[in-house]
Design brief:
The structure is a single chain. This protein has 18 helices and two strands. A two-stranded antiparallel ribbon has the order 1-2. The protein is globular and about 65 Å long.
């Protein structure tokens, strides 16, 4: 299992790393205002699929292993997703006809129309990738994932360099996503012609609709602050925060490979095996995270100023603070898996919405007074509250060891942020935490 986790981690690390590297290189070609637009585009690019894919990317992970028992499974999903994107396009056209030319800081045409095309093509690719995951077709998954990200990295940078415009990001992404979808697909195992099945749609949508609100809420939790910054401050400030968040959120690399490999397996396991996999997830994710936090902190404190312009170097001190926000993220993710396993998707949606509202309200209150630092602080508090509530509900509202771990870690690192404790002390505490997790694993399985 560890070998496969490392394989997925390596591939996902390259894929996500190239995505992050794009953001780290774009400031060399774009001014802070255009880079701020890229930040807004990224936020919508990650938010919109949760609406237009109708939560079906999650339904595939849960039900594709038994898709032959459904009537017209693939055709129903494809038609539903096509229609949802078409409705968004019609909505944008309606706003444009009403003389509303700009939404969320971006022009409807060409910005949002081109962005919708990119979201559609990348959404189709995500559906295919999830099918590969369920079928455990690791080779095709790796090839498709890497082809898309390497191609996007090369073409986006080339077009942005040539055009000196943020539109190069959108056009490059569309071209590569289209080619990827032509080269990689999953053929249906049913030989008879398929047509849309309302029965299949109703069953899958009953399961997946909470993930629309869950995905939107979670995404807004990590991106709403950019839109609020744009309202109260400037696009240049949005560009700076996008840069800070892009580097700090690289902590998520510690969980990506493990999630991609383990999540489908968790759903196919019995309860005892599920809990063992979840504990392994937290352990391995935390080990990788402490390594990443060390690298991020040292780079931002000692090397970033030699590479980037003053506008970006001035906010480098915020990067480790964003990074430490992800320390309790494995608890949130594993609580999600536990509730999905038990088909408690409505609870996931409600909790996500409540956490998102809390995040947005706190940002509106603090950003006008504390500016960029407010966004960082609210991100940390929101992730801590999110992990705490999700874990509590997933364990049937019982106080557990995981709850105590979240409380201790959350309060401890919050005090480190407030009192500006040296990053090396944070790393030392992180190492003690890793030692504790290994000790717990030894007690449980010896």
């Amino acid at each position: 299992m560890l070998k496969k986790i490392l394989s997925y981690g390596f591939v996902e690390g390259i894929a996500k790393g190239l995505n992050k590297l794009i953001l780290l290189l774009l400031p060399f070609f774009l001014n802070t205002t255009d880079f701020g637009k890229v930040g807004l585009i990224l936020s919508i690019e990650t938010l919109l699929p949760f609406i237009t894919l109708l939560g079906f990317e999650r339904a595939i992970l849960r039900f594709y292993s038994e898709h032959d028992t459904f009537q017209s499974f693939d055709k129903t999903l494809a038609n539903s997703i096509n229609i949802s994107h078409l409705l968004v396009l019609i909505g944008l056209g309606g706003l444009y006809l009403l003389n509303i030319k700009e939404v969320l800081g971006l022009k409807i045409f060409p910005d949002l129309v081109i962005l919708l095309i990119l979201v559609y093509l990348q959404g189709i690719n995500q559906i295919v990738l999830n099918k590969f995951r369920v079928k455990e077709n690791h080779r095709k998954y790796f090839k498709s994932r890497l082809f898309l990200q390497i191609g996007k990295f090369v073409l986006v940078l080339a077009l942005v360099y040539y055009t000196k415009s943020y539109l190069g990001y959108l056009i490059g992404g569309i071209i590569v996503a289209l080619i990827t979808n032509l080269l990689f697909n999953v053929k249906s195992t049913k030989k008879s012609p398929q047509k849309f099945s309302s029965k299949t749609f109703n069953y899958l949508f009953l399961f997946s609709w909470p993930f629309i609100f869950h995905g939107m809420a979670v995404n807004l939790l990590g991106n709403a602050d950019k839109f609020i910054l744009e309202r109260y401050l400037t696009l240049s400030d949005v560009g700076q925060y996008t840069f800070v968040y892009s580097l700090g959120s690289m902590m998520a690399f510690g969980f990506i490979g493990i999630s991609v490999y383990l999540e489908p397996i968790i759903y196919k396991s019995d309860i005892k095996q599920r809990e063992k996999l979840i504990n392994d997830y937290i352990l391995y994710g935390s080990v990788i995270s402490v390594i990443l936090f060390s690298i991020i902190s040292i780079f931002s404190q000692y090397f970033l100023g030699f590479i980037y312009k003053k506008d970006y170097a001035n906010v480098a001190y915020l990067i480790p603070l964003i990074a430490i926000s992800f320390i309790v993220y494995p608890y949130y993710l594993t609580a999600n898996y536990r509730m999905i396993y038990e088909k408690k998707t409505r609870q996931i949606a409600v909790l996500s919405i409540l956490t998102c509202i809390f995040n947005i309200v706190l940002n509106f209150i603090l950003i006008p007074k504390y500016h960029l630092f407010a966004s960082v602080l609210v991100t940390y508090i929101s992730y801590f509250i999110q992990a705490l509530i999700f874990t509590y509900i997933s364990y049937e509202k019982k106080m557990t060891r995981q709850m105590l771990e979240i409380l201790i870690l959350g309060i401890l690192f919050f005090s480190f942020i407030i009192f500006k404790i040296n990053y090396f002390i944070m790393i030392l505490v992180f190492l003690f935490y890793i030692g504790y997790l290994f000790y717990i694993k030894k007690i449980q399985y010896d």
